[in-house]
Design a protein that fits this description.
By secondary structure, the chain is of the alpha+beta class. It contains 13 helices and twelve strands.
Length: 323
């Protein structure tokens, strides 16, 4: 992984808007985020080294090409990475990488070039990884922190690890060229990489975390989540969602909040507002029509809910994002 400040920010993609009504919550979230790649970078190290990267809130990834290193991400337990391991940080917090634990880290700043070297500057490296960052649509970047775990780790022996490595290699190869259609291909590859990483995450990890992935790993809660996403305009109640999940209202509400990290109606509100932000930014849909599309009885009711959640009116949000 490398400092995102060295990359040039690109404007929002002109890709057609996603279909918001989808029974696949994971695909719907990724589509709404519209991920785009930032040029990947090779990071290598030799000797004794420790580096500290500040938080920057862009999703980051790395795959270990050879050797080992230690990764300590703020908010989660430290891990040792080995060749073939893949890491995804959906909303990158501060983290430290090192050749050994207990070393004093050096703060990393912006770096140019295709490779970043840590430790001894000459000689054969003992660790190499390919890392990079994604740019996501700024209207809904907060979904990463609200819906996904802090870190996703897929070991080299986990199912799908080889597929992830191939995807990262394709991204690196395409990013290094200026072929026709490069931007579109990179966007599609990044979307596939994110979906693959999220769905291939080891099942046992869901039991230790909260968020959308943990909810989808629970077959009963997954039924309710898919229903919500498939018909976001429906006037859902906790009791009705509980019936979909096959449990009482109280049991469903407690289990959903504990597993997903927020109450069912709060989750539904988050998703409705996310859709509204996307529409406000990209379409000229009348407010009353947008309100009806996401489950509000009137434009005024929608405006009140949006303002409470976003801190500004729908029109104010659209103006600020287009400025």
């Amino acid at each position: 992984m490398y400092d995102v400040e060295m990359a040039k920010r690109s404007p929002a993609s002109d890709t057609p808007p996603p279909t918001h009504e989808s029974s696949d919550p994971l695909a719907a979230v990724i589509s709404l985020l519209r991920p785009q790649t930032v040029l990947p970078k090779v990071i290598s190290g030799a000797g004794q080294w420790s580096v500290r990267y500040p938080a920057h809130n862009e999703p980051g990834f790395c795959i270990m090409l050879e050797g080992t290193c230690f990764l300590d991400v703020d908010g989660v337990d430290g891990v040792q990475l080995e060749e073939g391991d893949f890491v995804l940080l959906p909303s990158t917090p501060g983290f430290t990488m090192s050749s050994a634990q207990g070393l004093k880290p050096r703060l990393i700043t912006a770096a140019d070039g295709n490779e970043l070297r840590h430790g001894t500057p000459t000689g054969r490296p003992t660790m190499r990884q390919l890392g990079g960052y994604f740019l996501v649509d700024r209207a809904n970047a907060s979904l990463l922190e609200k819906f996904l775990p802090v870190m996703i780790l897929i070991r080299r022996d986990d199912p799908g690890a080889v597929r992830l490595r191939r995807l990262v290699e394709l991204i690196a190869d395409e990013a290094a060229t200026r072929r026709t259609g490069r931007a579109l291909i990179l966007e599609r590859l990044v979307e596939v990489l994110l979906v693959e990483a999220l769905r291939l995450r080891p099942a046992e990890a869901a039991g230790r975390e909260t968020g959308l992935l943990a909810g989808l790993a629970d077959p009963d809660l997954a039924r309710a989540l898919r229903k919500m996403h498939a018909d976001v305009a429906h006037r859902w109640t906790v009791a009705e969602l509980g019936r979909v999940a096959g449990m009482s209202r109280a049991v469903f509400a407690e289990r959903f909040a504990r597993t997903v990290g927020m109450p069912p109606m709060e989750y539904l509100l988050e998703w409705r507002i996310a859709i509204a932000k996307d529409v406000l930014l990209r379409e000229n849909t009348p407010l009353a029509e947008l309100a009806e599309r996401i489950g509000y009885q009137s434009a005024s009711a929608f405006s009140v809910a949006f303002s409470r959640h976003a801190g500004c009116s729908p029109s104010g949000f659209a103006r600020s994002m287009r400025a």
